[in-house]
Amino acid sequence: MLVVIALGGNALIRRGQPPEVEIQRQNIRLAAKAIAEVAREHRVVVTHGNGPQVGLLAMQAEAYKQVKPYPLDVLDAETEGAIGYLIEQELCNQLPEQPIVTLLTQIEVDPRDPAFACPTKPIGAVYSETEAKQLAQERGWAVAADGNVYRRVVPSPEPKRILELPTIRLLVKVGALVVCAGGGGIPVIVTPAGSIRGVEAVIDKDLATALLATELQADALLLLTDVDAVYVNWSTPEAQPIHGTTPQQLRNYSFAPGSMQPKVDAACRFVEGTGGMAGIGKLEDAAEILRGDRGTIVKAE
Q1: Catalytic residue among 8, 9, 55, 276
Q2: How many other C-beta atoms are found inside a 10 Å radius of the C-beta of residue 167?
Q3: Buried b / exposed e along 178-202 (16+ C-beta atoms within 10 A)
Q4: Which of 49, 205, 282, 295 is catalytic?
Q5: Can you name the CATH fold of 2-110+156-298?
Q6: CA 82, 83, 88, 89 torsion: positive or negative?
Q7: What residues form DSSP beta bridges with 152?
Q8: CA 209, 211, 53, 127: dihedral to nearest 10 degrees?
Q9: Per DSSP, what are the bridge partners of residue 189?
Q10: Which end of the chain has less Cβ packing within 10 Å, N or C?
């Protein structure tokens, strides 16, 4: 089988941990063991998040005033390379005979996407209201309140096309384990003349992974996180896990928009687009989720 595995942010940095390299390396080592268990029996493609890492680079750039801050698409590329390096290295240690490659991945978005008119994703440092408004005027940023502070917010457009898809297909065909589309990929637009240009945006990694898995016609999509399943009535005494379900059934519920909802949307899109199986659950349960023994299993009716 061809299995696409999306590593949630907890695979890199656990809740409350600082985004230090050695901490990430230790966490990724555990993730690599779970991926390797699947990869010993199946072909595997891996994606991952990058939110804290992009935010850290943005804050570090603010400390060096002699150079203008790098645009967000470049920060996306930097983190995709850095995180991919750590994942690739730990996977090589687990699977010494397996060809493994990390691929920077550009994903096309539509410049007319409504998300560009309504930025919602916070990024980088926190500011006072006065500082935020001044930066918005100087740099053309959109800013928004985040509790008692202000932060820059950027659009999160829909992923439309994976530019490196032919290369990914070729690598999978020759037996490589591919790490790609990290952080939702690098958001770009393609001009009418055919040239490519990066844009200041972030693409949801789960939706990008669903697109990737669908285009590859994968047999299974695993969305791995730090909870054992999708729950209805989460964080209430009535919380109940969902085990076996269909896209139609899942779409009857509402989930947290910044965490579980994108995973549910991604699972539904993949199953509807391919007829394959999607699983959502704990990172360490990856092999058991694939077998249908743990997590939330989403299949077509």
Answers
A1: 9
A2: 15
A3: bbbbbbbbbbbbbeeeeeeebbbbb
A4: 205
A5: Carbamate kinase (3.40.1160)
A6: positive
A7: 123, 143
A8: -130
A9: 197
A10: C
Active-site residue identified among 124, 185, 263, 282? 263
* pLDDT per residue as tens, the chain (301 positions): 999 999 987 778 887 888 889 999 999 999 999 999 999 999 999 999 998 888 888 888 878 888 888 999 999 999 999 999 999 999 999 999 999 999 999 999 999 999 999 999 898 888 999 999 998 998 889 999 988 899 999 999 999 999 999 999 999 999 999 999 999 999 999 999 999 999 999 999 999 999 999 999 999 999 999 899 999 988 888 889 999 999 999 999 988 887 899 999 999 999 999 999 999 999 999 999 999 999 999 999 7
How far apart are alpha carbons 155 and 199 in whole angstroms? 10
Domain boundaries defined on the chain: 2-110+156-298, 119-154
Query: Are 250 and 268 spatial neighbours (Cβ–Cβ below 8 Å)?
Result: yes
User: CA-to-CA distance for 283 and 181, rounded, in angstroms?
Assistant: 19
33 is a catalytic site residue = no
Catalytic entry in 49, 51, 121, 279: 121
**Annotated catalytic residue, options 8, 10, 49, 279:** 10
Look at residue 58 and give its three-state secondary structure. helix
Token match 């060096």: residue?
A: 64
Instruction: Name residue, tokens 């290369």.
Output: 167
Q: Give yes or no: 121 in active site.
A: yes
In the prediction, which pLDDT does 60 show? 86
Q: Alpha carbon of 261 to those of 69, 120, 221, 258, 266: distances in Å?
A: 32, 15, 16, 7, 9
Active site annotation includes 9? yes
Give the burial string for 90-115 (b: 16+ CB within 10 Å, else e): bbeebbeeeebebbbbbbbbeeebeb
Task: Point out which residues pair with 122 in neighbouring strands.
Answer: 153
